[in-house]
Amino acid sequence: MSEHLLREVRLLGEGTTDLLLRDGVIAAAGTDAAREASAAAQRPDTAGLVALPGLVDLHTHLREPGREDAETVATGTRAAAAGGFTCVHAMANTAPVADTAGVVEQVWRLGRQAGWVEVRPVGAVSVGLAGVHLAELGAMATSAARVRVFSDDGKCVHDPVLMRRALEYVRSVDGVIAQHAQEPRLTEGAQMHEGVVSAELGLTGWPAVAEESIIARDVLLAEHVGSRLHVCHLSTAGSVDIVRWAKGRGIEVTAEVTPHHLLLTHEAARSYDPRYKVNPPLRTAEDVEAVRAGLADGTIDVVATDHAPHPVEDKDCEWDAGAFGMTGLETALPVVQQTMVETGRMTWADVARVLSAAPARIGRVAGQGRPLVVGEPANLTLVDPAARRPVDPGEQLSRSRNTPYAGRELPGRVMSTFHRGGPTVLDGAPVAREEVTA
Ligand SMILES: NC(=O)N[C@@H](CC(=O)O)C(=O)O
Ligand SMILES: [Zn+2]
Ligand SMILES: [Zn+2]
């Protein structure tokens, strides 16, 4: 087992300390760390870096099986490690769909073999994401993949009876339904947010109410059956209000916002560049302000990437023909630093909560999102918050290039990531992984 002595890191941005990682755990901290380190311990240059618990993504599209031209479990998890993640939840909209124990175990195994991060497969709610028959939720939960998050993401579970059954079912496995809130009839042919920009451009709009009406229905269903609901990629001011109301009422609802909904607005569509085409669509500046406020006050629990890689032929085209989705694993932390830390709305401790502790808790992931104290698993990432550089899609490790931030300067850089005590990233570069068989 490797041994690493991390000198003078800033724990959650606070005071500096030394950490000794050995045998997969944090073996010592403070003045004990250097004393207990053996002569063989590696000593990367870490002085002044911010130490965060390894980031946990509740919403990643890894595209395997089926769309290995866009991403694979290996390439997507390597990109995740480069972004500071030690765990990702792999969405179920693959081909075949992850709606059986067999498929979720396959994805889980591919994650183990790649060894970059812990891969927690998400199970589909309905067979084939068709929204008609409930998938084998119990078998996925008790499989080796131990699925706890179920979602038809990409599609909305719009039948209220199916949604009710799914919510009832997951209670017995301590699971959660993660809903892609999009009323399908209100969004037929939609190309972007419905508002002044869509009117000017003559593009069919996706009104805020198409998201809000589903969230309102679902929090009431969750209350009625007493189950856990998670709202995927919430994007409007009205959605924040509904979740705030539901939490105030004691309903067990959690919500996520993506980095792109914290930073970008529907004005980006004026470029007709399909890299800005995403579901839910980029909204107004008022919505951006509302999701920032909701994240800061705890209404929104989690920042999740919704990393949605697409091959160049699906993005290098006219707006109407472009696929929905953007990559996000390698830029999530810089966007959160810019929009929430540098604006004074959140501390690094808050960042650790929304990008690590809360998603780990919602996904019921043991050993992730833990405080960086002696005895805990050594899942952590070290960030240089003073770095600033333009995003270069050619430098990114995802197999796809559809980042909306190309050429934009963002702050912060992940310098090192440790997964179960082993480095996956050192000095800003990925480290070759041995196959994990344990
Ligand atoms: N976000 C997107 O625009 N696309 C996602 C699906 C989804 O998250 O709804 C995809 O799988 O490409
Ligand atoms: Zn979605
Ligand atoms: Zn998604």
From TrEMBL:
Q: Where is the Dihydroorotase catalytic domain?
A: 50-236
Give the positions the UniProt entry annotates as the active site.
D306
Where is region (Disordered) located?
Answer: 386-438
State its Enzyme Commission number(s). 3.5.2.3
GO molecular-function term, one example from the UniProt record: dihydroorotase activity
The UniProt keyword set, sorted, is: Hydrolase, Metal-binding, Pyrimidine biosynthesis, Zinc
Residues holding Zn(2+) 1 = H59, H61, D153, D306
The record's remark on the cofactor is: Binds 2 Zn(2+) ions per subunit.
CDD domains named among the record's database cross-references: DHOase_IIa
Q: Which domain of life is it from?
A: Bacteria
Function statement:
Catalyzes the reversible cyclization of carbamoyl aspartate to dihydroorotate.
Q: What protein name is recorded for this chain?
A: Dihydroorotase
Species the sequence originates in: Georgenia halotolerans
- From the UniProt record, report the name of the gene that encodes this protein: pyrC
